[in-house]
UniProtKB/TrEMBL annotation:
It comes from the Bacteria. This is Alpha-ribazole phosphatase. Pfam families: His_Phos_1.
Length: 189
């Protein structure tokens, strides 16, 4: 059995703009929230865990604020590339209307990638993890992990900044079984 926990980075300093692939800083000023999250991580994963991170600055900064030495990074863990939507304010984003989750997951912004594309990039990284691991990632990373169990319905989950999503995997690649242990455990007040 392997436990994989995805810790979404601390609040991103985006100035109210979408920053999927934008390399922005994280607000790591809430020492009490990081202390609470460290306690949650220890309780759920114990001390014998490994860390892995998205190369995004906000993820690496979050790892540092959690007391981890800079973890190895994997480019497969980057957030979804929103293409032409990158850098837009949330008010400027197009309204796609109500879409079934399978259509939303397949929607690809111009020059970017769909949720399905991003999940196809993230999930092999998750499947390759051989030891209990804490991944410093993004909301998309956590939803891609959840999609291993619930498919496109993973898009329905809220993933707050500095929140923990925990899955357990048993079995070998190609015949593994995934279970969701926790979603969106937050440390922020």
């Amino acid at each position: 059995m392997v436990t994989i926990a995805v810790l979404r980075h601390a609040p991103a300093l985006t100035g109210g703009r979408l920053a999927g692939r934008g390399d922005v800083d994280a607000d790591c000023g809430d020492a009490a929230a990081f202390r609470r999250m460290r306690q949650q991580v220890r309780q759920m994963l114990g001390a014998d865990l490994r860390a892995l991170s998205s190369p995004a600055r906000r993820c690496v900064q979050t790892a540092g604020a959690m007391g981890f030495a800079p973890p190895p990074t994997d480019p497969g863990l980057w957030e979804q590339d929103y293409g032409a939507w990158e850098g837009l304010t949330y008010e400027q984003l197009p309204d796609l209307g109500p879409l079934p989750t399978h259509q939303l997951a397949a929607h690809r912004p111009s020059g970017g990638e769909s949720f399905d594309d991003m999940a196809a990039r993230v999930q092999p990284v998750l499947r390759s993890v051989a030891h209990d691991t804490l991944i410093f990632g993004h909301a998309g990373t956590a939803r891609a992990a959840l999609a291993l169990v619930v498919g496109h319905r993973a898009l329905s989950f809220a993933i707050a900044p500095l929140s923990l999503t925990v899955l357990r995997r048993s079995g070998m690649a190609g015949a593994e079984t995934w279970a969701i242990e926790a979603v969106n455990l937050t440390a922020l007040p």
